[in-house]
Amino acid sequence: MTDYKDTLNLPSTKFPMKANLPNREPEIMKYWDQIDLYNEIREKSKGLEKFILHDGPPYANGDIHIGHAVNKVLKDIVVKSKTISGLDSPFIPGWDCHGLPIELMVEKKYGKSKFKDNKNAFRKACREFAQKQVDKQKKDFIRLGVNADWNNPYLSMDSQFEASTIESLAKIIENNHVYYGSKPVHWCLESESALAEAEVEYQDITSNSIYVIFESKFDNKNIKIIIWTTTPWTLPANRALAIGQDIEYVLAENENGVYLFAENLHKDIETEIGKTFKVIGRCKGKDLIGLKAKHPFYEFNVPVISANHVTTESGTGIVHIAPGHGQEDYIAGVNNKLEIYNPVDGKGFFHESLQYFGGLNVRQSNKPIIEKIKNNNCLLGIKEYQHSYPHCWRFKTPLIFRATPQWFISMDGNNLRESVNEAIKNVEWVPEWGHERISNMIENRPDWCISRQRFWGVPIPLLVHKENKQIHPKTAEILHEAAKIVRAGNVEAWFEHNKSSVLKESLDDYEFITDTLDVWFDSGITHISVLEEREGVDQADLYLEGSDQHRGWFQSSLLTSLAIKGKAPYKKVLTHGFVVDSSGQKMSKSLGNVISPQSVIKDKGSDILRLWVATTDYTKEMNISKEIIDRTSESYRRIRNTLKFLLSNINDLKAKNHDPSKIKFTLLDQWILLETEKLQKKIINNYNKYKFHQVVQEIQNFCTVQLGGYYLDIIKDRLYTTKSDSDARVSCQLTCERILKTLNLAISPILSFTAEEVYKHYSDDKKSIFLEQWQDMSIKKDDNVSKVGDLLFELRNEISKELELSRNSGEIKSSLDSEITLTIDSDKYKLLKDYEDELKFIFISSKCNIKQSKDNNVSVEVSVCSYEKCDRCWHHNETVGSIKEHKSICKRCFSNIFENGEIRRLG
């Protein structure tokens, strides 16, 4: 018996099905490094339209976590998708290198005493530490497959950047946005420094809330004004009581006297303190303005004033005002010319001179203050109260509001808030809710405290008058000189510099301040130091960060850009959600649900992590778990399997050197190329809309439905059994090649390592998939290709169901054992009649007859084909046994082996 196996065109490729990504990816990384891929792309992209994604700087401290990985991978996908679309899209990565966390790490390493008398040695140690962190994080980002200008990142501690930061401050001062003032700011007792809004987190805490009596007189009656507070420690700084002008108040009595509170809160107060009150009078808030009330433990009176922030949502409708300990209290204090009193030092201790409580830490002072109020018979009630309270983002400890002399960027002094709100309207926000979110934040945010009492940061080199704290008339010249000094030798050079030489005149009445800039100011001016000075543009096409950056980098960049040049630094802002576990819980070591990018890469490879990022809808919280990563691996395997099939069946195509324009593509090939063209358009559209999960969905559906479930199944017969250089087979191979190139380019921004690996198996000597662009998919097509192709695709599903039923019943073992009779309406019949002899290849049966129905119904009849089975193609055919010397094969196979071979028109 003759073995015909050697006459078949069996698939062959060196591309392995087992990905082995953890070991294979580092080799591809080495290759990218050898060919200097980033600069190769820059060279090839010269002269093309630019697309600038501006990288927000992560903080240079610690290993990268899964959130970092998500962010950098999303950015990499954007940049790569723009590059293959024919745009010049550079990627300059950056790091935020100054600030408290690095100071703390250096102090922890060396001890606080080591640098007590040498702050510049401390700064140099901070610089060295930050550089090590940058180098460590950079390796992890590169391992993720992120293609960026890693040899030339921007660092906020680079001398050029630091100098640019000072110059930006000079422009903002020149534009009258900066002032010096003593007002309450969020204050961290651990770091002894003011915090920016972006450095504040809110956590639920339980406090002792108290109802306190301030004695007064109204309408010739002794009354007891009730206030409610959750911060008893602020009562020593009380300087007024605030009411709402239009709120209705009641005078209500019980056996202990007459009390004043808001009418709407009557029942709530009775419930909370366990006492009842009988209303004996009413008044409007405006009638109370000007009353004097006795402080509950000091021998002075405080005025009753009106304030806009007083409501009847909770409490008593009367608010105790400590202008030195709250933003709204401060505003009320300024409006009413109250003392902005702050008896608390930077460590959180009351000044020694404070009566009763001097030397106490505010965190331990609530109990003795409550005791003092109680002893004075001014405590009406006490109850535990759970509420949201500001905490330090670094130490996770409660903050206090504390009035201190600081430098601020004014939100309203020069209409900055108004201009920012206008600029926001001209930015595209993805998702759309980002617009409302940042608008609300801008509307409600206080002035920006930009000064810090720290050492590792960009100096605020302002020369101020010793008495009135006014800045020197030649401030612009001073800042320019300071920037020059820093540019030549980093911030350390400024702190070491002989300040008397900065201006060639007497400075006896002036002194340089020693504060440093808020690190959010550093990162907030990257639109100058990076976009303008390195990229040559004044606006980025895209900022892309986590949703927390609406109150962080998006906002600091927006404020500085409007303050300097009057326009937003970005055209579009895209935000992604936080990474949580499969149950939606935040990652936490204590919960044991932390998944590090390093562990995923080690176990599965970067491409699996990248695929998870792309597959997940980043506009919401992003769920991750071992099970989710395992499912992602399975999805990856299916895509890889498709690519392997395509590669293995074009292995001998190059040697034939066929001109595609001279090949008559079969109708099925034309149809699948049309489908591939549609796929390419959808993918480009989804990349442009940053809908990466839909890109993956389209690719997976195409691989599963049009390819795996249809086209690739059908063409096996043509690929394996027809003459190797026949038009029928070459048409199929050229089609597979085009599909492969389209699919591989489509996955390249996401599965970057795999795409490069695949590329090496079909690209001859070309350097990289990332130097390619989308291909023109047009070929000469038959007029009815869509109608016939779509109809066959639709019918195949119906027929496959019937074949499956016959298989399950045991009537046939495989679909090639079957003969199909297809009854269809006249329109369908006319479309398919000319191709009847080839329909069996589409439906993978040994014979297919079509009949015209009398109605519009489709019917499928499956029967067992009675012919003998061909040993070579496995089709049952009436010609098997008719060839004398080759009785086990059919005439079609004989022709494909020994003669000119068959001709295919359909599939």
Structure description:
The protein has 27 helices and 31 strands. With 907 residues, the chain is an alpha/beta fold. It folds into four domains: 35-176 and 415-444 and 475-501 and 519-576, 3-Layer(aba) Sandwich (Rossmann fold); 206-388, Valyl/Leucyl/Isoleucyl-tRNA synthetase, editing domain (Isoleucyl-tRNA Synthetase, domain 2, Alpha-Beta Complex); 628-749, Orthogonal Bundle (Isoleucyl-tRNA Synthetase, Domain 1), CATH 1.10.730.20; 785-866, Class I aminoacyl-tRNA synthetases (RS) (hypothetical protein PF0899 fold). Strands 6, 7, 8, 9, 10, 11, 12, 13, 14 and 15 form a ten-stranded mixed β-sheet that branches. Strands 1-23-24-17 form a four-stranded parallel β-sheet. Strands 5-4-16-18 form a four-stranded antiparallel β-sheet, with no helix packed on it. α17 (606-615) packs across α18. The longest helix has 30 residues, at 692-721. The radius of gyration is 38 Å and the shape is elongated. The two termini are 30 Å apart. The mean pLDDT is 94.
